[in-house]
Amino acid sequence: MTDDPGAEDVAAALLVSMSLFRRRMRQVPVQEELTLPETAALSRLDRSGPTTASAMARAEQISPQSMGATLGALEARGLVDRRPDPEDGRRVVLSVTEAGRALLRDKRTARIRQIAQVLASEFSAEEQRHLMAAAPLIERLAQHL
Predict the structure, then answer these.
(1) Contact at 8 Å (CB) between 75 and 82?
(2) Gyration radius (Cα) of the chain, Å
(3) Alpha-carbon distance 86 to 84, whole Å?
(4) 114-128, pLDDT tens digit by residue?
(5) What pLDDT shows up at residue 25?
(6) Residue 55: pLDDT above 80?
(7) Which pLDDT does position 138 carry in this prediction?
(8) Which end of the chain has the least Cβ crowding within 10 Å, N or C?
């Protein structure tokens, strides 16, 4: 008899723990000015590069109208820039401005500090090493889903 957990046991444990982690990250405030949809749109645009509003709506699985409203709010705050598509002048391509990138960086830095504070106060050095070793594995798992 082996003490090694099966793939389904590991999957269940990860789903529960990562779901709780994600919920808590959404609940615990971080000094930010963005709504959840604005954060998602700005982050996707930053990761994926310039694209159209309709492509973003498809990627986020929301209506083009909702994405348009979100992007309009981001543009009004100078976080997103609209330019004519060089290949098709009828379309508009959106990109993140430097102000948008700075806001995302500040938000990420605040989250990192929040997590680091808990790690430093609640986790031993050995536990922190285990979490560090698990991080690339969790990332690889996410990339293959």
Answers:
(1) yes
(2) 19
(3) 6
(4) 999 999 999 999 999
(5) 85
(6) yes
(7) 94
(8) N
